[in-house]
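Problem: given the chain below (315 residues), write out its structure.
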Amino acid sequence: MRPLTRRSILAALAGLLTPFRSTTGQVCQSRPLPASPLLKGFQEAEECYAVGLKHKVFRIGKGPAVFLCHELPGLYEDDIELARRIAARGFSVWLPLFFGSPGDHDFLRFAVSLCLNPRSEFTCWLPRTSPAAHWVEPLLNTAHSSCGGKGVGVIGMCLTGSFALAAMSSPALCAAILCQPTQPFLGKSKLDLSPGDLDSAKASTVEILALKFSADPKSPDARWRTLRNIFQSRLTELVIDSSSGNHARVSHGAHSVLGDSYNDQPGTPTREAFERVIRFLDNRLSEVPSTPEFPRIGETCPPGFAVYGTATCPA
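Solution.
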């Protein structure tokens, strides 16, 4: 996290007074917008309209569509690189910009402006669905029609960690990935889903992959027990050991499995987690998968992992 400065504090307070602009419709404008140099290799952004909200969307790669919903502190370099890694494995990655600008990394400013602003698209505190999550769901059919495959995947991270659950009423959704979901802040065992969205998620048959570090207090164990109780055999959990003195020397303060805590070296738990994400997406979205499915029983855990659910391992 960046150190607090007078400028960052004033920017955060100013964010409380800034309303989010919105519009109507459920389409992506074909008119391209200028892209950041950080997004070299991406298609230029389109503006996508849905449920009264408007966001830029950057795209990269070819293949079945995957929505990658960036985390707090913003659409920063690690999330952009994650999009590139996923695209390199045969997917068209749709990367929405929910707030800020590409490359922004200002935790305090966005935490205050998003979570204390009553007009915010993010419902940080209470167990109800964020408006920003409802922006994603209507666009999945558009992405599926554009990119083909069996359907679309949604990856949520941190503040957007449960967005895939809120999109389960879409027939285009075929793979849901939850990375260290942090909302709601009040109620560690609660999910950030309104009753209707929770009912849709329960009624769906979409399988769920959930990832986190074991010692991460921002994504509490009580919430994971709730996920386990609700989704049961539909849920596969990948929990990376980050306790003191852990086998893989993962930092005790690690939070973002695929973001700023990611280590791409072969054999590391986060690299293994990424490979499993690719396998999960490939087997649910690709017409002809190129990677093997998770074994249903008897899989051996990689070092530093506890895997629960579809792929069973001892804790």
